[in-house]
Amino acid sequence: MSSVTIKDVARVAQVSVATVSRALNGHGNVAEEVRRRVLAAANELRYTPHAAARSLSSRRTQTLGVVLPDLHGEFFSELVRGIDQVAREHRLHLLVSSYHGHPEEQGAALRAMRGRVDGLLVMSPFVATPGPLAEELAPTLPTVLINTQHATAGVASLHVDNYGGAVAMVEHLVASGHRRIAFIAGPSDNFDAHERLRGYRDALQRLLPDAEEWVLPGDFDEASGHQAGLEILSSKHRPDAVFAANDMMALGCLFVFAQGGVNVPADIALAGFDDIPLARYVHPTLTTMRVNIAELGARAARLLLAQIAGDTAEVEAQGREALRPELIERASSAPEPERR
To answer: What residue spans carry the Basic and acidic residues bias annotation (predicted)?
Structure first.
């Protein structure tokens, strides 16, 4: 049987070859009904575009590059899930790379993407000067930065309002009657962690000016939350509540409390940040600040596609937006009156 061509798809769908090409490549100037008809025809005929020929004709790789500090943990899996959802809608592939939390390896990861992708999504959450990152970004390659401290000229960015989210959590804990609130911080060189710590400190000073801050070191993983929990249990005076800078540390702390006979929230309330899927399936369910992580990835991918398409109006509309976290009250932070 002879191979199916794009002309065959156009004939079955009763549209032009150019329309088939636009529909299969995810261009926005195709009516949705026409796009569905083209996709149905392509599926019926089992048509597969010739990747090499398409790349040569369009000078596109049909691939988006994603460079992340790590791939371990639910945050990154949710982020990639959101990116991948948008990529699949546009029949694109992902090339994902990690620099394993080492800023010095970031440049190598970025350079490895050149010539292989049509655009880049880069997460660089380090508290550092923008020089090294800016120097490694190819000026002709569309790029979107995610949760990056420093704006880079001509590069769109999306970030989470980590400061506002931390303030909202402290406000919730204080409104629930808690007065001695400990905070498990994230890595000292991480911008997200820096902003969440700043929000905790500012809110505590404003709402409880006579209270002393209690900051324990953490590393955004279960092990550091576990260690912080051990330190809390060994303290002479325990806190009313513990606010962890992310859910993974909160869950590590929760495990220690359970092992140590501490009832959450009757003895100590507990809260996290991010709302990873596991947060709603532990006991007690975890109060947290919901960052729609998959939506953050999806928005970043849509913004990148707008750049690739040259849609400057859409890029300006979406660029440099802050994603606002949402307070999710669950069983781990019952108000003080309910804990007696």
So the answer is: 319-329
